[in-house]
Amino acid sequence: MDPAAQPSMAEALDRMWTRFLPQLEERVATLEAVAAAFAGNHLSEDQRTSAIAAAHKLAGVLGTFGLDEGTVLARELEGLYSRPNSPDPAEGGQLTTLAARLRVIVESRNQPPPPPQQLHFG
Amino acid sequence: MAHRILIIDDEEDIREVAALSLETVAGWEVVMAGSGAQGLARAIEYQPEAILLDVMMPGMDGPTTFRELRKNPATAHIPVLLLTAKVQSSDQRRFADLGVEAVLFKPFDPMTLSTEIAGVLGWN
Question: In chain B, where are the structural domains located?
Answer without folding.
Answer: 4-121
